[in-house]
Amino acid sequence: MADPALAIDIGGTKIAAGLVDDDGTLVHQAKRPTPDGDAEAVWTVIGSLVTEALAAAGGAVRGVGVASAGPIDVPAGTVSPINITQWHRFPIVDRVSAIVAAPVRLGGDGLCMALGERWRGAGRGAQFLLGMVVSTGVGGGLVLDGAPYGGRTGNAGHVGHVVVDPDGRPCSCGGRGCVETIAGGPRMAQWAREQGWDAPAEADAVELADAAAAGDAVALRAFRRGATAVAAMIASVGAVCDLDLVVIGGGVAKAGALLFDPLREALDSYAGLEFIRDLRVVPAELGGDAGLVGAAALVISA
Ligand SMILES: [Zn+2]
Question: Would you list the DSSP string of 214-282?
Fold first, then answer.
């Protein structure tokens, strides 16, 4: 049997590493919180997770796939995640190459989520897929004509920063009016509070979903507003890319029908052209494992 792929998933709150076999099964995984320390402190956590995974593989892997929060620079092999401020142009590919004797491939976390769902999850069989996450932020990645589409620098599919409100609020990316400023979990909770949602200061999208499920009118409006923004973005991306499927995962998407029902309703009103009218939107299936499975897909062609 072929050696497994080593997969690394680097996010602002947690870092995971795992081993994935030829059929996309995650056969080992471990995760740690992303540390607050300096750039090297973050690297130290990755180094130890990689060492553990290598030991679990008996020392031999066929390649390493790295999924990272963006922005990234694939030609340069560096990453500058918005939510890991200690890292600016961090040379992740060189660092991993120095400790693992195998080819290293880098991809955005959204792209890897899309690849994971396409290989083992809700995106199986899709040739033109948008995989996306609605969570603290909104992210995504594209598979076009059956192949990962990274664009010039590997950042294509940053759908959270599609502008849906030209007069909108400032966004963490430096722009304004992005989908993420409306549909990101903390932004939905903040908006609900401004509209009179009576909740503790630390209440977030999980409590907002509970309130909506219990029939709270403001919470329901917050979900409808977020879902409508996501639908506007999907209609726009669908018009540009001629997609056949959209898979949505992430914490806010766990609210299920609270998000998907108003989203499909709004999409029906935005998607006018015939080739977008058939666009299906479905929940993700792999949860937090999609990033690792998709990172492995960068080195095992699924
Ligand atoms: Zn933005």
Answer: TT-HHHHHHHHHHHHHHHHHHHHHHHHH--SEEEEESTGGGGTHHHHHHHHHHHHHH--SHHHHT-EEE
Residue 80 has pLDDT above 90, yes or no: yes
C-alpha of 234 from chain center: 15
pLDDT at 302 over 70: no
Distance 159 CA to ligand 1 centre (A): 9
Give the separation between CA 149 and CA 146, rounded to whole angstroms: 9
Q: Is 16 helix (H, G, I), strand (E, B) or coil?
A: strand
Q: How far is the CA of 174 from the centre of ligand 1 (A)?
A: 6
Ligand 1 center from residue 135 Cα (angstroms):
14
Please tell me the total number of residues recorded for the chain in this structure. 302
Question: Ligand 1 centroid to 134 CA: how many Å?
Answer: 14
Query: How many A from CA of 124 to the centre of ligand 1?
Result: 29
pLDDT in tens, 85-121: 999 999 999 999 999 999 999 999 999 999 999 999 9
| Angle at the Cα of 120 from the Cα atoms of 286 and 83, rounded to 5 degrees | 45
Least confident range of 7-11, 48-52, 180-184, 199-203: 199-203
Write the single-letter amino acid at 242: D
d(CA 233, CA 242): 13
CA–centroid distance, 181 to ligand 1, in Å, is 7
